[in-house]
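Justification of resources, computational component.

The compute hours requested in this renewal are based largely on the per-chain cost of generating structure records like the one below. Each record pairs the submitted sequence with a full C-alpha cell output. That output is archived, and it is also reused by downstream analysis tasks.
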Amino acid sequence: MTAKTVKNICRGVAIVQAILAPGLMIIGHITGNKTMKNVGIAWCGLIVLDTGRTTWIAIDAIYEVEGLKDDMIL
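The structure output for this chain reads:
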C-alpha cells in the first residue's frame, strides 16, 4: 500500500466522521432518541480530542523528517 493510499483512506475516514457524528446528534434530537444523540455527542468529543492529539504527532513527524530541532525558529 502506498503512502498516497493511506493518506486518502485517512482523509476519507475523517470526512465520514465529520459528517456522521453531528448527523447522529441531529437525528437523535429530531427523533427524540436520547441514546443516538448521546452517542453523537460522545463521538464529536472524541473527534475533537483526537484532532488535537494527531496534530502534534504530525508536526513532530514533519520536524523529524526535515531534520529540524524543537527550538528552531522557522
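The chain has a mean pLDDT of 81. Residues 3-66 form one domain.
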